[in-house]
């Protein structure tokens, strides 16, 4: 039986930092610097965070993380992959996220998509996520996908990865 791998969506598959930066520039003309966001929560880093995550199209048009299609296909062939996203926090994102996954990852079936509020009841062997709050409860292998908000986290319980190429080398 294949091991079960849980893969987060925003910040792991979808490049929401680039999306926030693009939306902020579109709306205000201000080009935010990613390095200035290190150690800040997304709410602290992006002045219009709440407005953007609740706006139509934000999740539907998010760019892909580099190498995520190749990486997820690779994992999907080796593991029982489930995409787990805390989508119910932003109810308008539910359909957008499903459509986005269907477009970019057609090999992921609807049975592999879990849209939830909290991830602490989802079980698996390995979890890849960019938010330590989602990994902290998890009893399996914890993989922290590097993003500006978690750059200063040094918890030895997490295996840090810098991107999809590194994930493919490890798994």
UniProtKB/TrEMBL annotation:
Gene3D superfamilies: Deoxyribonucleotidase, domain 2, HAD superfamily/HAD-like
A Pfam family matched in the record: NT5C
Listed name of the protein: 5'(3')-deoxyribonucleotidase
Family under the similarity heading: Belongs to the 5'(3')-deoxyribonucleotidase family.
PANTHER family found in the cross-reference section: 5'(3')-DEOXYRIBONUCLEOTIDASE
TM spans (from-to): none
Signal peptide start-end: none
InterPro entries membership: 5'(3')-deoxyribonucleotidase (IPR010708), HAD-like_sf (IPR036412), HAD_sf (IPR023214)
């Amino acid at each position: 039986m294949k091991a079960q791998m849980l893969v987060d969506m925003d910040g792991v598959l979808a490049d929401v930092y680039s999306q926030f930066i693009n939306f902020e520039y579109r709306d205000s003309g201000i080009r935010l610097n990613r390095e200035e966001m290190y150690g800040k929560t997304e709410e602290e880093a992006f002045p219009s965070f709440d407005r953007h995550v609740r706006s139509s199209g934000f999740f539907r048009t998010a760019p892909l993380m580099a190498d995520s299609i190749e990486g997820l296909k690779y994992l999907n062939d080796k593991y029982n992959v489930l995409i787990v996203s805390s989508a119910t926090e932003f109810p308008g994102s539910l359909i957008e996220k499903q459509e986005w996954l269907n477009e970019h990852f057609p090999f992921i079936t609807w049975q592999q998509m879990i849209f939830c509020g909290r991830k602490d009841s989802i079980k698996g062997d390995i979890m890849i996520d960019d938010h330590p709050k989602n990994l902290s409860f998890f009893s399996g292998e914890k993989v922290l996908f590097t993003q500006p908000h978690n750059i200063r986290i040094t918890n030895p319980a997490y295996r840090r990865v810098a991107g999809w190429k590194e994930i493919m080398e490890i798994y």
